[in-house]
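Appendix B, record 7
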Amino acid sequence: MIQIGVKTSSRYGKLMKTRRIRSIVVLVLGMLIVAVNPASGKELEDRKWIEVRTPNFHIRSALSEKSTVELARYLETFRVAVSLVTNISRVDSPIPTEIYALKRQGDLKLLGIESSSVAGIFSPGLRRNIIVIRNAYGKEEIHLIMHEYVHFLTRNHGSLNYPKWYDEGFAEYLGASRMRSGNFEIGVVPDGRRGSLAYSRWIPLREILAPTNYDKWNRERKAMFYAEAWALVHFLQNRPDHSASFRQDLGRYIELIESGMGDISAFEEAFAITAYDLNKQVKRYLESSSLLAFQIKLDDLIPDFEPDVISLSREQVSLGLAQAALRLGEYDSAERWFTIATTDETTRPQAEAGLGDLLKFGDEFEAAQPYFERAIALAPDDPYIQLDLAEYWHDRASDSDDPAARATYITRARTHYVEAWRLDDTMPETYTLYAQTFLMEEQRYDFAVELLEQAESILPSNITVRRMLAEAYMGAGRTEEAIAAARSVLAWSHNESAAANRAREILAELTAAEE
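Structure tokens (predicted):
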């Protein structure tokens, strides 16, 4: 474990604003039609809310207790099933996953989810994952959200950068899993892909294996990519008359790619099949009666499922909704809910810090300071409050043009980062942002690398950590590691995200330097 110490500094450069941009995956269902009930007369926080807690999930729900417990059972079953059908050994999340289950589309709008075609959101973070879902278990949105959750699980396991067809196809394969008739079924055809497979013109699977210029593909072609990637993974998982296991073939495939062999040649050698024959064989497989879901008895997966169910107070509900709204950029709702949460002593410290965050994000640093000071006075032993205060001073240093003031602010930030670490040394956010102060201020690249590698060991899936590692490796002259980190950011990012754009810049800089 790296020991974090407080260091003073004389200069502090501008921090990249992109560190405040959280990666939010918006899940759009183009063909899903939902009947919306008339809005209730009660405000969202005044309705009946419960929290269902399991070892790996906290679900705050405005749904019935039966529906919420069923959702919790599905999530825990899914997590265990993933570990059984894959080589993923780490399916416990290193950070909390909080889920908000809402009844109506209008409820989602209060959290900043405006579009009627958006069914849910999975927002991974350094501190917590947030899932917002409408109507919960049994709808197509649960498949799309679990697709993203599969990415989260697989990217926390090992360091391999899987090819895009497998990365997305495998997430589709597992994400569509369902509970039915006492069984957990894996390999079900995703509802959103049925139309593509049945009616759209197939892309040659050679192009799925090596999707050149994927970022420029149109929406229909990308939808077909996901559908065919699912079909290819399903076929390879269950190939008739093939003695080798899928895992064995996949491992060989990755080895060949890493040795420098081209995508198509590596696939043909590892899986012992000609790429030109793929379309015919996969279509024939889909049309056969052997296309069945793999079933596991629910009682074999989680035989003793007894979640904790508690009723939530108005203030507890408001605090949770405020934190979700703040994360999703809906500041007006967040301010109202944080204000309600300040009226109870148990929720007040975090609510005060939340109100400070709102002012800070509006560059009202002087006005924000008393809120953070009240929060830390109320809960000095809360590591998250210490972290919030550290980030306040960190952002204030970033905003300042006065070198002396920046030095003072960054020293204060580091003091509270250290205190957060002393209270809880398992939070990847602490290591990541503390490292950033040394990247941007003193350019102590080796020390930043140590801190960021610690953050990565806790939360390997986080793109922000990977992007900053690429920066630190590049500054430290560790070119090969910088390239590998930057490539992983590109492999995991959505097309034109800030992280992906910066990764391209890093790769271009390193390539130019080598030339």
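Remarks on this record: Residues 1-40 have pLDDT under 50 and may be disordered. The two ends are 38 Å apart (CA to CA).
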